[in-house]
Amino acid sequence: MQKLRFVVALALATALIAMAPNAGAQTLSKCSAGKKQCVAKKVAGLLKCHQKAEKTGTVVSALCLQKVRDKFDGGSIPAKGCFAKLEAKFPDCVSVGDTALVEGMADTFVNAIICQLDPPAGTCPVPTASPTCPGPMVTPTPSCVPGPEVCDNLDNDCDSFTDEGLGSTSCGVGLCQRTVSNCIAGVPQSCVPGSPSTEVCDGGDNDCNGMTDEGLGVISCGTGQCATTVQSCAMGNPQICTPLSPSAEVCDGIDNNCNGSTDEGMAVGSCPNRANATSTCNAGNCGFVCSAGFQDCDGSPANGCEVNLTTDTNNCGMCGNICSDGNECTFDTCGSGTCQYPVKPNGSPCGVGMTCNGLLCQ
Q1: What is the dihedral of CA 50, 56, 59, 64, to 10 degrees?
Q2: Pick from 149, 151, 163, 156: which is nearest to 190 by CA?
Q3: Predicted local distance difference test score (pLDDT) of residue 25
Q4: Is the four-CA dihedral 264, 265, 270, 275 of positive or negative sign?
Q5: Are 348 and 321 in contact (CB under 8 A)?
């Protein structure tokens, strides 16, 4: 007899699914049509849990009932609930945020079906024969005295529904969050959070500490001016570190071309050219080396090596070495970096009104 009762109940749930409008059919709201299918599937699932208990002769499995509810409301991830996915897909939903309300109504409906098909359980009024009427007449059940609805599988408030409107309880945070109905088959339920796990980059709070994708560190890549660092996780997506772009090597103390060396090769080409000198690069600073026979005697890099030490009588052989022997009858010259004093021709003027005679001014 009990097996027959569940066949009837499952037939009812199957009929609900068949009656639920197809999402592709012409309906007022595709969202509402989809929600009807969600409810029909939930009812069918709950009835199957009861049928399994009948087959084994055991109490209906709370785990079985919870799995059906989790599939309907998303369990620890409400966004994966049947209603929530429809509300996200269709902007024209007539009602939103009604998962808990409709779930409670569906639970009450299934409990009423089980009560109706299983009177021996004591959840339905038992008809009694009237002593004043001939034959097996049945008298009405005495009037119900309404009171607050409690979780006992009875219709306490006399509205023809059992354990309705008792709501649900949520506990835990992140991926440990769970939501359970406060009452299942007349038994009060406790909410137990799920177990935390190691934090990974998925946009979820895996370790259930109230933060998402935290402590996952950074990734570094590249060398020289191409070096960069990025967060290993961003918005739930693992990141890839891509080095910055290289450029031509210049004299600046930086590895511009990102080859692991600094100021090498053509870096000196970025330094300015100086007169009578060869440009150099040292520790990121441009400099120059004077060509043979030339020197920077004024200390100004702008004019480079401006003095020819081989011919300059004011800087002969070295800066500041002036060629002068004090004799008016000789020439003050610099040759090959050495001061030289050749004698002037005889008769060359010298002094006041005198002329040179060899090295003598007479």
Answers
A1: -50
A2: 151
A3: 42
A4: positive
A5: no
pLDDT digits (tens, 9 = 90+) for 138-181: 444 456 889 999 999 999 999 989 999 999 999 999 999 999 99
In tens, the pLDDT along 85-135 reads: 988 888 778 788 888 888 888 888 888 777 777 655 434 444 444 444 444
**Cα(305)–Cα(111) distance, rounded to whole angstroms?**
104
Q: Six-digit token pair at 163?
A: 């354990």
CA dihedral 326, 331, 332, 334 (to 10 degrees): -150
Instruction: Show the CA angle centred on residue 243, arms to residues 241 and 246, nearest 5°.
Output: 175
Q: How far apart are CA 81 and CA 100, in angstroms?
A: 11
68/142 Cα distance (integer angstroms):
36
CA 318-320-326 angle, to 5 degrees, is 110
The Cα 177–Cα 194 span in angstroms is 6
Confidence bin at 9 (pLDDT 50/70/90): low
Classify strands 338-340 and 333-335 as parallel, antiparallel or unpaired. antiparallel
Give the pLDDT confidence score for residue 133 in this predicted structure. Answer: 41
